[in-house]
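Input/output pair, single chain:
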Amino acid sequence: YVFATDQVKGFAVTLILGILTSMFTAIFFSRLIFDISERQGWLKEIRMMKILSEPNYNFLGQRWPAFALSIALIAIGMAAVVDRGQQLLDIDFTGGSSVTFVLNPESPLTIGEVRDMLAESELSDKNLLVVRRGDTNTRYSVDTSEQSVETVKRVIEETFGGKLLMFSVAIGELHPFDTAGISGTEATVTINKGPGFDADDGVSREAMVELAQGALEGAGHAGVTPYVDSPAYRPGSGARLKEWVVRLPDLDTAAAQQVFTRLQTDVEQTAMFPLANMIVDAFKALGISLLGVVAYLWVRFQKLTYGLAAATALVHDVLITIGALAASAYVVSWAPGLANALKLDSFQIGLTIVAALLTIVGYSLNDTIVTFDRLREIKGKSPKLTPEMVNSSVNQCLSRTILTALTVFIT
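Output:
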């Protein structure tokens, strides 16, 4: 939070306040509804829903077939992980570049065609991942271990050529201005407004300043510093806006017209890359998160056997999931029709996947704690832990587990 931008800080504060408000609303109004219903006599009896009335399954009786199945699935998954190697890791872990490009609406390409064309480029052996954005077959993101964003842009331009959507620039009417003792000429510059462009396909203030400076230098006014502003702009924001007021100090209308014409000509010859950035290694964040989970397990259960059992369950769930992610590439290669129907891709492990894995860890850990608490109640002061105790604790928590998982899934 300390090193975040003002925009990220604002988002974080808004998110936290939203969560607290939602929790207060849910708790307060739920209780209020119950109070009113009870006092008015509308509520005579409260019964809790039961998915399973009195389950009595012998879970530990099936432990050996379950162990064999888990080991087989993990072995297959880990073989897929080893086979894919670096290709399984997104650029969040390997480092590299992420570039989004847009095709002309008149020249859409399927994701298979885009992959095939890029597979013949120099990016083919650099951990290449192509993701389609939207459903128009015109917007794609390319993630690659290539460290240079400019190199990725060049390859994309060489590969798709005239199929790429170029920037659109419209220059408004020129007006003289005189503000705070500074005079010159200003005009409204409109970027990427029209068919084929999304709402956020504008440019940031920093980018607009660079474009204006480049046009000034090209027109022979390198010493002039442009002023760029917009009614929708907030200081420190990186928002990509479509309309900017560009002021050129000390230039009359004729000189400013040359600069704006140069800006329009230069920009409209440039392919549009809505997002282009470099990603750094994320292993540290993942490692710290997992260490935090292990520390919590140790403190929470205070006993090595409970901690090891919970940790084993977490590792099992994560390994099964990672194995399935790794195996997705083979489904895409061997059964593309099935993969398309199931919305499968050659998934890679990036920050989004790490968040998903940590979510799985969180829910698994939560359910394990509930079951272990019940197990300790059943065990009491008995010196020995028996399979019957374990079965009883799992069965007693089974309805709660199913209801919790079901409500989360619906949400």
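Residues 6-39 form the longest helix (34 residues). The mean pLDDT is 86.
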